[in-house]
Protein: Tc1-like transposase DDE domain-containing protein
Organism: Cirrhinus mrigala
Amino acid sequence: KRGEAQNPRRLRSSVKFPQSVMVWGAMSSAGVAPLCFLRSKVNTAVYQDVLEHFMLPAADQLYGDADFIFQQDLAPAHSAKATSTWFKDHGIPVINWPANTPDLNPIENLWGIVKRKMRYARPNNAEELKATIRATWALITPEQCHRLIDSMPRRIAAVIQAKGAPTKY
């Protein structure tokens, strides 16, 4: 209904692809990192492996020697004590992030962009889906990432104004 686009009672999730894959990706205002397709459910060991083999090289690529703060949600593998220790051992500060706040997480919007660009893709299997995701991810520009990062003050204001309900972000 008109004027109710963000009303939680009016939102419905949908499935676009019969195939599914689990993927880890990262972004900064400098652009996107290479994707990691996961073969198993994410537990603490799997997540730390992703951090070691994908996040660390991506951080070098995106930041060089500059300092950065890592943002992640509070999934169990992310918030595990062993993962916190991994970040401390690697000298990587992690932003204190509230649970269940997709309106505040710019990468959720980036995934939305990827899904919209893939709207008419019809992969027949998981490998075709991965190839389509990789190709679409490669089209993301640093400017898009920068705009999403720059939108953070507006996102925060919108969530405060909506008292935690969904926003246009």
Observations:
- Residues 7 and 146 are 28 Å apart (CA to CA).
- Helices lie at 44-63, 76-79, 81-89, 106-117, 126-138, 142-150, 152-161.
- The chain has a mean pLDDT of 89.
